[in-house]
Design brief:
homodimer, alpha/beta, 434 Repressor (Amino-terminal Domain), Rossmann fold, 3 domains, 6-stranded mixed sheet, 12 helices, elongated, DNA-binding, transcription cis-regulatory region binding (chains A, B)
Amino acid sequence: MANIKQVAKQAGVSVATVSRFLNNKDYVSQEAKAAIERAIKDLNYRPNQVARSLTTKQTNLIGLIVPDITNPFFPQLARAVEDTALALGYTVVLCNSDEQQEKELHYIAMLRQTYVAGFIVASNLISEQSYLDLNIPVVALDRSPESLLPNVSTNNFEAAKLGASYLIERGAKHLICLRGTVDVASSNERVDGFLAAMTEAVDYEILIGDYGFDNAYKLMTTYLQQGKPVDGIFTCSDYAALGVLKAVKEAGLRVPEDIQIVGYDGIQLGELVPPGLTTVAQPVYNLGEQATRMLVNKLEGKDNPDTRIVLEASLCVRGTTK
Amino acid sequence: MANIKQVAKQAGVSVATVSRFLNNKDYVSQEAKAAIERAIKDLNYRPNQVARSLTTKQTNLIGLIVPDITNPFFPQLARAVEDTALALGYTVVLCNSDEQQEKELHYIAMLRQTYVAGFIVASNLISEQSYLDLNIPVVALDRSPESLLPNVSTNNFEAAKLGASYLIERGAKHLICLRGTVDVASSNERVDGFLAAMTEAVDYEILIGDYGFDNAYKLMTTYLQQGKPVDGIFTCSDYAALGVLKAVKEAGLRVPEDIQIVGYDGIQLGELVPPGLTTVAQPVYNLGEQATRMLVNKLEGKDNPDTRIVLEASLCVRGTTK
DNA sequence: TTGAAAGCGCTAACAC
DNA sequence: GTGTTAGCGCTTTCAA
């Protein structure tokens, strides 16, 4: 691969001029421009990003950290982020922390050393303070509106309340809330929303799980074996709802006749899984797009009063409710 | 962030010695070692990878290119690759080409400039020659065993034959093969496998689609409206099978009573979707692991006769077949 | 066993 | 408008 020196020589100018041309800086005469353009074409020259970032201590890389790439919600989110970033001139490095703190730290360290421009964090394994300590722009995505970090999310509380209320509205009397990991703000907020929807006419129980499929399946299978009465289940993620659905069916119960289910997220797969998953749908694409724009605004030092965007989720009624 | 010079100063040695220590090269006296270790700890020093790769023209980055991150097969594959790579000391950069050649080229160019060590390619948008021209190790994953590139895959032909045969075995008489993009080798091989399973007792039709959900859904919906007789469908991906399943159900047909379906890939979601997707299951994790090992072997110049690994797929019978 | 110094490819003063 | 040159942080001869 050719380097800037060769281009300069071929074009009969200095490397500084070539560099200016490359970065649209200062004035470069028309003749010089033309000569450089030719040389670049002739030599099939591409600027070396590594050298560039060694000097500038900058890149146009955005690290996107997701907790579990096998949860279909995150690929959908990732796609939105990538789309938007690419359109704005940034490249996304997708990091799957796989629910392991160690992996997340590894990715952060690696990207940090690569002069990553900023992060979009959709996982919850590392403290917000740690991210702040990085001293580079970070945006939290799909976490809590109360986050210390600039963030984009839905109103977890209201959204969960909406979903839980609907279960009651459709006649559920014995509810379960399958919640995500404890101490995770967004997860807590969703549980609070669920609780806010409870009335005196119903009873409920809270099961502690995570947003994954496997745990949801196991927890619900165990629970159903106990034979306690249940006719409505609210899960804090769609992926978990799918696990619940499987457990319920295997237990020989009918959905929605015996048990109604409402998920959370709005993954595309929700419509595939017969009888169709009723869910509190987050505006997935918009979530990803807004987070990316917010980060890029920060990166480019734009005036951006927006340091928190809260989008509305909506109830998407399908077959798992009556 | 501290740099090597500061470490050297603090430790009372030269930068060269620190560098040797960092890379376990040549001899470094015990005293020097101790002093350097202390200094590194005191300064919380981390080598700057950018500077390092500018000098060495190397990194331990592996680019993993997938065609569609929203197809659940690829996240599963990605996870296996990441796991293995991390264990072997490499970091995976996951690139979703999103079925767009432009995006794929963008990622390749960007990683190439970053001195990426090698690629694992699970997409089919760019010619194999283009990858060979990169002049760095590349391994094709889940493509064709006939690939010019070193590759890891299942025996597409046999696997598809297995799936199609099973449909016939279970009594299907009017079959459809929903194939992937034309001119893609792995896709062609699967169709050939399907064809090889056909007997005189049945009739069949081949529909051209892709591995995605949307197209499968649309194609099948349209097809079913025509009212032609169909009682068995083989799709070249599970994700597409889910689309077919949806179309079939919407058309008011029963699965498997009226129409039997067999997918291909073995995604986890196959078991969730009632009545459970019968599929030709690829050994997903193993596929990803082997590809990563093959690439790393090449990167490290190990003697590796293996330039092609063909794994066996197996029939996973669930509810979409009788 | 260690240090001095050149150089990786590029940007950014600074001088002309 | 343009060229010279000093780094960016690291590895790697080459000498000592």
